[in-house]
Design a protein that fits this description.
Chain lengths: 360, 144
């Protein structure tokens, strides 16, 4: 049978962002895959060198439309490290609360995308319905659904009122009840199992060799979670449970994320029940003496790294961003060969790709 | 938590002159200078020490002469290998550790660094038809 090359993308309905996957097919089976990115490269690292540290917060927030708060947290944390600042406890708690809410809405979004890719539209509707509830909470707290504008260098912009705390806890309790739909899905649903079990295997050796991070790596047995390995901000006072599977398939990625959603709800409740009193932000100088800092945070998709260097001026000398999607994209070239064409959608959607993050 | 003494001992055989520096990069990073010719040996020493070496990122930045490459690793804690490349070229880590592949392609895109031994040093983020200088490379000032 002759081999054909099937171009998937750059524009395609699988994920809503541009990526090109060139698949060589032998009949129904993938023999090799090449991934090409860069379609939404905006030169943001260069732009950051031409904006003040404060303006940079708005730039990094626009790197990603899903984990925007993780980006501003990592960036602000790096700049605070340059300044040698320890931000107030209340600001740390509000940052972590938004980080966990963001993880919840990102995982729900992902579950919906995966469900749609395997033809399970009901779960897509349920997952995105619940995601809206979380976006409403984030909007109530910060004023923004996607770009929250919550972080500033030195702390956070807005406080949490007692009413907001109550409303947040109420929504989280409702989501906890709804989560049983998704735990049932991964634990018991036969058609979900058939479409995801044993599909898109990613052995632990490949996770290590390709530097894969986040739920994708933890679904293959890796343990790295920055919140546990190198606690930052409010995570220094929180017990973050581990959600690790050794199944290494699309099902395990769903199981890991559903577990993490449950953990995130518990963490959010823990944070708001013990919300420290105090200031929201510290005053920071416009110029920063020459220094270098590396900041790692656990974004919804895994370890997000920022390197920021100052040279004494009002703008950073260099900002480098390594997003968690990059290693996942790279390892896709190893995961796709051997698959039947019908399973490609489950594996690509199940990888939780974010092209805007990867391309910057 | 700092990089374990075992790792530093393993690295000391390859980089006898390197002194662990815990102050130059804030954020709990241990920094070690590594000449480009010893980079691959340093990685081999780290992997042979039995630890799981996670390459978080490679940051490339222009230096006074050539380029500076920062290999940000996570091995129970943050470790950054600082490699100064005076001729704007470095040995590719990709054959040893595939995770380096796209980070090296990106550094090649943005600063024009040549990674000797990389299997496919094509543009990653820039368009194939990009003909300008590497966007983040230090531009020579010309008298207009």
């Amino acid at each position: 049978m002759p081999e054909i090359t099937l171009p998937v993308g750059p524009q395609h309905p699988l994920i809503k962002e541009p990526i090109s996957i060139l698949l060589d097919l032998q009949g129904e089976y993938v023999t090799s895959a090449r991934v090409e990115i860069g379609y939404v490269h905006r030169g943001l690292e260069q732009l950051l060198q031409r904006r003040s540290y404060t303006q940079g917060v708005a730039v990094v927030e626009r790197i990603c439309g899903i984990c925007s708060h993780a980006h501003t947290t990592a960036y602000c944390q790096a700049v605070e490290l340059l300044l040698g600042l320890e931000i107030p406890d209340r600001a740390q708690a509000i940052r972590a609360l938004l980080c966990e809410l963001e993880r919840l809405h990102s995982h729900l979004l992902w579950l919906g995308v995966l469900a749609e890719a395997i033809g399970f539209t009901t779960i897509f509707m349920y997952a995105w319905r619940e995601r809206e509830q979380i976006l409403d909470v984030m909007e109530m707290i910060s004023g923004g659904r996607i770009a929250h504008g919550a972080n500033v260098i030195g702390g956070v912009r807005e406080d949490l009122s007692p009413d907001q705390v109550e409303a947040t806890e109420d929504r989280l309790t409702k989501l906890q009840q709804q989560l049983s739909v998704f735990t049932d899905l991964v634990d018991r649903d036969k058609s979900f199992h058939q479409r995801t079990h044993g599909i898109g295997l990613l052995p632990l050796e490949l996770v290590y060799a390709y530097g894969v991070v986040g739920p994708m790596a933890r679904a293959s047995g890796a343990t790295l979670d920055v919140r546990r390995a190198a606690p930052y901000g409010a995570y220094r006072h929180l017990e973050v449970p581990a959600a690790i599977s050794s199944e290494a398939d699309v099902w395990a990625r769903a199981w890991t994320r559903v577990q993490e959603m449950s953990h995130s709800i518990a963490l959010c409740k823990e944070i708001i029940r013990h919300l420290p009193e105090g200031d929201l932000a510290l005053r920071v100088p416009r110029r920063i003496a020459p220094a270098k800092a590396v900041s790692r945070v656990e974004a919804p998709r895994g370890e997000l790294l920022y390197y920021v260097e100052s040279d004494g001026g009002e703008m950073p000398a260099r900002v480098h961003v390594r997003t968690p999607t990059l290693p996942t994209l790279l390892v896709m070239e190893k995961m796709l060969p051997g698959l039947q064409t019908g399973d490609i959608a489950a594996v690509v959607a199940g990888a939780d790709l974010c092209m805007a993050c990867a391309d910057r | 938590m700092t990089v374990t003494d075992t790792l530093l001992t393993a690295l000391a055989t390859v980089l006898p002159e390197a002194v662990p520096d815990r102050d130059s990069i804030a954020g709990g990073e241990t920094v070690l200078d590594c000449p480009p010719e010893h980079l691959l040996d340093a990685f081999r020493a780290l992997t042979e020490s039995g630890s799981t070496v996670h390459l978080s990122a490679i940051t490339a930045l222009p230096a006074d002469s050539g380029t500076l490459l920062l290999y940000h690793l996570w091995i129970d804690s943050g470790l950054t290998l600082c490699v100064h490349c005076p001729r704007n070229e470095a040995p590719s880590l990709t054959p040893l550790l595939p995770a380096a592949s796209w980070y090296e392609r990106e550094a090649h895109d943005m600063l024009g660094i040549r990674f000797i031994g990389h299997p496919n040093l094509e543009p990653l983020l820039l368009a194939a038809e990009w003909s300008g200088p590497p966007p983040l490379a230090r531009q020579e000032k010309t008298d207009a």
